[in-house]
Amino acid sequence: MSDAPGNNDNVKPLKFMPQPGGAAQAADESLYEIRSKIYARAVSGWFARWRWGVIFATQLFFYGAAWLQWNGRQAVLFDLVTRKFYIFGVVFWPQDFIYLSALLIISALSLFLFTAVAGRLWCGYACPQTVYTEIFMWIERKIEGDRAARMRLDGQAMGSRKVGLKAAKHGAWIALSLWTGFTFVGYFTPIRELSGAVMSLALGPWETFWMLFYSFATYGNAGWMREQVCKYMCPYARFQSAMFDPDTMIVTYDRERGEPRGGRSRSADARALNLGACVNCGICVQVCPTGIDIRKGLQYECIGCAACIDACDQVMDKMHYPRGLIRYSTENAIKNHWDFRRVVRQALRPRVLIYTTILCGVIIATVVTLSMRVPLKVDVIRDRTSLAREVDEGKIENVYRLQIMNTDERSHRFVISVSGGDDLKHLELLTVPQPLEIESVSARSVVVRVRAEPEHSHGGTERIFFTVKASDDEKHMLPEVISVREKSSFFIPSSAR
C-alpha cells in the first residue's frame, strides 16, 4: 500500500488532457480510477474477537506445525524429492492422488455451503490475504498510531521522525515476511535442516528462490496491495453472487430503520427531528478494510469481516439506541421483518441441505477409505523384452518386476506367492530369498520368474495373481492385515500349446 496521504474516498479521477490538433475531451471525463490509501480505523467487539481468534489459531498451526516431530521425523512434510507426503501418522505417495482429489472436492463443497449459508465467511476470517493484512495493519498501528495519527504522519514533510517510523514499520513487515517465507519452504524441505542451511548460508537455489518469492508476495500483498487483491485479483469476489440468494446471511444495513440519516445530540429526539437511527458518523466506512460504505447495499468488495457491525453497535450503545442497525441478516429477513429464529429455519433450504448431504458423504467416504487403507502397495510389470520363453523340462517361463512399497512407518518382512485360475493351477515362483525385508516408508523392486507346464493350460494368455503378505510377528501386527493381491497375465506361446 502506498504511503502517500489520502482519505477514505476510494478513487480520484484522472482527467483527459486536450490533445493538440484534435478535439478536446470533456473536462470531467475520467480515463481510469486512481486509488487512494485506505486508513482503516481499529475496531473492537464480538466479531473482532472472533476474527483475531481465527488469526491466532491459523498462524499458530502454520508457524508451529512445521516444527512438530512424529516418529522421529517432521510431522507435516511434503517431500517432493522423495515424493513422500507426511501428515502426522499418515504417509501419502504419488499413487494416493485420489485423496488429494477428495480434499479439493471437500474444500470446494465447504466453500459452496458456507457461502450459501453465511456469505463470505472464508474471506472475512480465514483467507490468508485477510489474515496477513490484519497482522500488518496491527503492526502499522502499533508503530505509527491509529487512523488519525497515520494520516497526519503521511501528510508531514519527510523528516527524521517520519523516516524512523516508516523504516521501523517496513522492517517489521519484512522480518515477518521472511519468517513466513522460511516457514512455507520448511513444509517442503525439513525445517530443521533448512534452519541450519540458513544459518550457515548454504541454501540451495530453489529454497532461496521460493523463500524470497513467498516473502515478497506476503510483503507486497499484505503491506501494499491489501484490498486491491480482494477487489481485483481474487476470482471469488466475482462469482460469489452466483452462490448468494435472498436467504443468504450477509452484512446488511437496515435502511428502513436507519433512514433518513443525520447527526444529532445524544439527548435529541430522533422522531421529532424526523431522523432514523443512523447518525451519519461514517465510522462504518472508516473501519472497513476495503473502504466501502455498507449503507449503499451489498457490494462485491465486501469481504464479510463484520468490522462495520462492531463499530455501529458501539455507536448505538453511546446513543442509547438498540443494536443491529448493521447486522448479519438476509435480504428476505430485512424485507419481511423476520426474527433470528425464522432466519435460522430459512437457512435449512433445499440448496443448503443438498450441499450438506454431498459434503458429509464425501467426508465419510474419505475417512472410511483412509481408515481401511493398507500400508502396502504393489505394482506388477511384465518384462517387455521377452513375453515368454521355454526352459528345462518344457516349462514356460514369464518374467515380472514387482514394485513393493511399504508405506508403513515400521519395517516389515514380506512373502510373495503366486496362484492361477482353474486352467493354470501348477505355478512355480522363482525369486530372491524370502521373506523380503523392506524398511519403513520405502520401496523395493524385485524381479520374479514364474514357470508353468503348457499342458496344464489351454494356451494363450492366462490370468494369474501375485499375493504379497507381511510375515511379521503377530505381536507387532497381524500378518493378514498387511496383504495385497494383484492380478497379471501369464503368456504361453502358440508353439507350446
Characterise the protein shown here.
By secondary structure, the chain is α+β, with helices and mostly antiparallel strands. Among the domains are: 245-338, no CATH class; 376-496, Immunoglobulins (Immunoglobulin-like, Sandwich). Helix content is 40%, strand content 21%. The protein is built from 16 helices and 18 strands. The chain has helices at residues 46-65, 97-118, 121-126, 128-144, 147-155, 160-185, 191-199, 205-225, 227-233, 236-239, 255-258, 283-286, 307-319, 331-336, 340-347, 350-371; strands at residues 11-15, 30-35, 69-70, 73-74, 76-79, 84-87, 90-92, 250-253, 326-329, 376-382, 389-390, 396-406, 412-420, 427-430, 436-438, 442-452, 460-470, 483-492. The strands form six sheets. Strands 10, 11, 12, 14 and 16 form a five-stranded antiparallel β-sheet that branches. It is elongated. Residues 1-28 have low confidence and may be disordered.
